[in-house]
Amino acid sequence: MGHVHDKVPFRPLNIAVLTVSDTRTLETDTSGDTLQLRLQEAGHRLADRALVPDDIYQLRAQASIWIADPEVQAILVTGGTGFTARDNTPEALEPLFDKAIEGYGELFRAISYEEIGTSTMQSRAVAGVANRTVIFCMPGSPRACATAWDRCIVEQLDARHRPCNFVEMVVPKAETACGSRS
Fold first, then answer.
1. With bands split at pLDDT 50, 70 and 90, how would you rate the model's confidence at 178?
2. 68: containing domain
3. Nearest to 95 by CA among 66, 63, 139
């Protein structure tokens, strides 16, 4: 089991939140609200927030903007991970990944099994790293977002978490060593 290393300083990351939905607006986006609240409570900064329809190219375009932005270190994507004809988040984002994080989807489904049983098979939660930006995609419900953040993501975006975390992959070493951007 991992632990927090008390001699390593916390390193706040700039995290963007992207909601994929044909029916929600930013005003009714409770899943995006859940992620924004949790990332800020953990001490991170909201870099940006957007909502796009379930369209491969619009989703890929918004994610690409953030992947290309050196100020965005992580992207949390909610929605579009199911099996309906309009659920295209994995198809949109996996081609952008330099490396896939297979363990995230496996872990999310294992934890979700405790909460929703075999329905977790219908979650296509995926993650990857693209241009030093870590991307986590999760289902579009607030409960699924809470599960993903609380039980899979939060520790991996904390430089103090040992034995390993993603902070050193998304922030240049000189910045993690001194705890601030130059």
1. very low
2. 11-178
3. 63
- Domain assignment of residue 98, yes or no: yes
Spatial contact of 59 and 52, defined as CB atoms under 8 Å apart:
yes
Contact 148, 105 (CB under 8 A): no
pLDDT tens digits, 28-47: 999 999 999 999 999 999 99
- What's the number of domains the chain is made of? 1
Say what the pTM is.
Answer: 0.91
- Write the DSSP assignment of 4-62 as a string of letters: E-TTSPP---EEEEEEE-SS--GGG-HHHHHHHHHHHHTT-EEEEEEEE-S-HHHHHHH
* Nearest residue to 81 via CA among 41, 125, 118, 127: 125
* Distance (Å, whole) CA 178 – CA 158: 15
Mean pLDDT of all residues belonging to the chain: 91
Instruction: Find out whether 136 and 166 touch, Cβ atoms under 8 Å.
Output: no
Structure tokens at 29: 């986006």
Render pLDDT for 58-68 as a digit per residue (tens, 0 to 9).
Answer: 999 999 999 99
- CATH number assigned to the domain comprising residue 95: 3.40.980.10
Distance CA 142, CA 14 (A): 21
